[in-house]
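User: Predict the full complex structure for these chains.
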Amino acid sequence: MKSISIGILGLGTVGSGVVQILTEHAGLLENRVGAPLRIKRIAGRGEARIPLAPHLYTRDLMEVVRDPEIDIVVELIGGTDIARTACLEALNRGKHLVTANKALLAEHGLEIYRVAAANRVDLGFEASVCGAIPILRSVREGLVGNSIRSIVAIVNGTSNYILSQMTDSGGRYGEMLAEAQAQGYAEADPTLDVDGSDAAHKLQILSSVAFRGYVPFEAIYVEGIQGIDPADIGFARELNCTIKLLAIAKEEGGVLEVRVHPTLIPQSHPLASVGGIYNAVHIVGDSAGPLVFSGLGAGQKPAASSVVADIVEIAHNILFFRPSRSSLLPTNAIESVMRVKPMENVLCRYYLRVTALDSPGVLSAVSHVLAENGISIASMIQKGRAAQAAVPIVMLTHEAVESAMRRALETIDRLEVVAARTVCIRVEGMEE
Amino acid sequence: MKSISIGILGLGTVGSGVVQILTEHAGLLENRVGAPLRIKRIAGRGEARIPLAPHLYTRDLMEVVRDPEIDIVVELIGGTDIARTACLEALNRGKHLVTANKALLAEHGLEIYRVAAANRVDLGFEASVCGAIPILRSVREGLVGNSIRSIVAIVNGTSNYILSQMTDSGGRYGEMLAEAQAQGYAEADPTLDVDGSDAAHKLQILSSVAFRGYVPFEAIYVEGIQGIDPADIGFARELNCTIKLLAIAKEEGGVLEVRVHPTLIPQSHPLASVGGIYNAVHIVGDSAGPLVFSGLGAGQKPAASSVVADIVEIAHNILFFRPSRSSLLPTNAIESVMRVKPMENVLCRYYLRVTALDSPGVLSAVSHVLAENGISIASMIQKGRAAQAAVPIVMLTHEAVESAMRRALETIDRLEVVAARTVCIRVEGMEE
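Assistant: Here is the predicted structure of the two-chain assembly.
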C-alpha cells in the first residue's frame, strides 16, 4: 500500500506535538486514513529537542521542501519571511501544504491561496485559528448550506487570560500581564497578543472562509487591551457585563464589518463565561441559527491535533480523490475580495466613562454633546460625590454610528469640566 | 456539467426545510459543490404542504427510491418501519443515503451501515444528532488524530427545556411539560423525549462515531426526567449545582460506559448554562483537550442545515472521488463492536435525598448503611426540624460503585425511620 510521506518544517512546540501524535497514534491514523503516514524528514534549528533517528533530521529547510518523495509539507516555523519562501517553494513543487501560520495567511494569504490553486494542491490551515477547535472545517463543511450572518469570537488566549484575571482579582493590566508571562501564557514580547494583531490575523482567516471572499487584512479595525483599566472592569460588572477582546465579523447586503477590540458583553452572553486561555466562536448561520464552539486555543497538543486533522484529510484526498478534485480551500475565496464597511460607518452601542469635575452642569454638558451627535443614552451610573475632585460618569448608549461617537468624544474631551480622556468601549450582544 | 439528483422521502418539518434551503440557496450551493443540486422527486403523505411543481411530488415513496436518475436519497420520514425498508432499498440500488432518523440508526444501524458499505455508497447522518451542530463531522474529521476520552452531552431539547423551566420557575414536572407542549417544544406524546430514549438513540450514534466501534443500543443505561421533583432542583441550587438530562460516554482501557440519566452538575460546568431547547456536547480528546459545541438541537432550518451539509459532502464525493473511495462512515464502526461496562460497575458520585422521620438516630442509621457499602459522604444538607413529620436529608457522596449504591438504597429504604423512597441522582463534573 502507498504510504503518505510527510515533511515537517519547524520542531518547536507545535512541531514536536505533531511528531508525537503521528508516532503515538501511528496505528490509529493508518486505520483512519487507509494508508500509513510516514514522517520522511524534519527540519529545525539547532539540535533536535526530541529523540529522532538522525537521518530524519536536518537544519536545512529546503532539503525537506525539495525532497521529491514528500507528499505533504507541514510548515510550523511561524513568521512571514522564511516561512513564506518555504511554503511557496513547496506549493510550486506540487506538494500539499499544512500550516498553522496565521500571520503568513493573514498577510500573504492571497498569494499562498493562488499558488496552491495554480498547482492544484491542497492547503490545510485549521490550526491557524483557535487551536484545537475544528472551526474552519465546521464553517466550510458543517455550515456549507448557510449564509453566515455573524461571527463573534474570542480568538486570543493570552488576552483572554489577562482580562479574566483582571476580572477575577481586580488587578491591573501590567500585573496580570506579568502573571500571564510567569504562567507561560504570554510571551516575553507580548505585543502581537495584547495589541489585537494576533486576533486580527485569525479573524482575517476565519472571516475569509466563513464569508467566502478574501478579507484584506488592512481592512480590519484593531484595538488591543493595553488600555483596559480595572475601573472599567468594575463598572462592567455593575452593569452585569464583562469585558472581552472580541473578533467580530458581520455581513449585511454583501458588505462586511470586521473588527477586533475590547468589548462589553452581558454576563448572559455565551462568550462571557469563556475564561482563561480558552477560545470560543459564536457564529450565526441563516439556517443553523446560533452555534458556539469552544476549546483550547493554543498549546502543543491542541494545536497539533488540528495539524494532524489537516494531514489526514489531505492524505485521504491524495489516496481517493480524482486528480480533478477541488481544493480544500473554497475557490471563491481566491476570486472575490470582500467589500468591507469603513469603521466610521459601523453601528453599535457604546460604554462611556467620562471623568468629570464634580460640578453642577457636567451631566447636562456631556449629554448635550451626545444629543447633538444623535447619540442617546440608555442607562447611566453616577456615583455620589467622591473625595477626589474628578468623578466618573458611566453611560451605556443606544446604537450610534462610530463617526458620530468619535466626533462626540472629541468635543466631550475638550469640555472644561472633563478632567481626563473619556474611555469608550464598544458593546456587543445587548438588546436595545 | 453533471447535476446531482436528489430524492426526498418525507415532506414534514425537516423535509420542507431542506427543500427551502436547496431552493433558496441553489446558486450558492452550486458554487460550493461544483455542480447544480437538483431535486428530482419528493414523496410525502397527503397533499404537499409547500408549493411544488406537480411532477416533483408523489405519495409513493418507492417511486423515489427506484428512480434510476436519483443519486442521493434523503430519508426524513422517521420511525423504524417504512423508513427502514425504504433506506435499505435505496442503498441496495446503489444510491447514497442521507438520513436524520436517529431511531433507525440506533436500533438498526449495523444493518444500515453494512448494506451501505456492501454497496459502496455514502451514508450521511449529521442531522440525527444535535440538529444544527456539526458534531459528527467534527468528531470524525476535526478530532481524527485523537483518542476520544469522554462525551458528556445535552442532546434532547425537550427535556432540557422542561428542566430549565423547572429550574427558573420552581414549577413541577407536569406543569412544565404542558408548557413545553403549548410552546411546540414537546410532542403530544412526549414519551421518547422525557424517558431518555431519544437521548439514548443519539448517544448510540455519537459514541459509535467517536469511539469508532458499534455501541449496541441495548447496552446503554437509560433513565428519564419524569421523576425529577422541584425539591431536588432546589437542593441542587443550594449545592451550587443544576440538574440536566445528560448523555454520557467514557472510555477506559477499551471499555465504554454509556448512560443517559438526570445528572447533577456544578453551576461552573460548561453545560450548566445551556438552557431551553439548546443542545451541547462536551467532548475530551487526548490531544485536543476539552471542547464544547452548542446550538439548536431541533427545528426546521437547524436540522435541514445539517441534512444539506451531508448532501453537499456526498455530491462532492460523487463528483470528485475515485470509485475506490472510503465511505463517509468510519468503516471500523461496522467491524468492531464496543465492549460496554455493565451499569453496576460504573463509578460516580451521587446526590441522595433521604426522606426520614425527624427522630434521633436517623442520620446515624443512614450513614451506617452507606459506610457498610463502602460509600462515604462528602457533604450534607440537613434542615432544622420541619412542621411535617418527615424531613429531607440531602447528601453528596464521594465516588462509589453503582452496585454498592443500589444495595445501600435498598437497605436505606427498608429502615423504619425512612418515610419515602430515597431519591438518587448521579453527579458529573464535580471534583473529589
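The radius of gyration of chain B is 24 Å.
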